[in-house]
Amino acid sequence: MLKLTLPILLLTLLLSPLWASATPADSAGLTKRDASSVLAAVTTITTQLTTLNKTVSAYPGGIEGSLSALQIQAETIQLEVDLKAAIVAAKRSANFSDTESLSVAQAFVALEPTIASTLANLVAKKPEFDDGLLGVASLSFLVEWDLEQLSFLSSQLGKAVQEKLSATYATLAPLVLDQIAAAFASAIQAYQ
Description:
Shape: elongated
Radius of gyration: 23 Å
Distance between the termini: 74 Å
Helix content: over 70%
């Protein structure tokens, strides 16, 4: 009996830290978020989008723009990360009250012109991206791919937020979301 008990005891002692770590000691990771976390995420997206827009505006293309092209790609990747974080925050949030829904809706209405401006700048810079790889090859395929990813993530964020809005604001959300989707579709088409 001792031979069987000792291995079980050792196994229990060895695995008990794993069981303890598998159970959330605090439920911080599972805590419901609220509208403030979504608003903070939208602020982060707006800041990153503004940074990207400034970098795109200054992009000269060609050999001299090679480092700027890398910076644009890094900023785009960060924007994708920010969008994914916002989607998670929205999905984890409880449904928003009317007051919270108004604040979130206003944040998206304020974000839309920044999106439109950035996309318009990307379209205007297409000739520069066409010879952006050391001045001899096109980067337009990469811009198109990034635009498709950003469009998808923006759509996912819009859906996640719309599901949390109060009924009045949820019915109005497509007005802004459709404008954003149309702006992305137009920019993607310019790069095809």
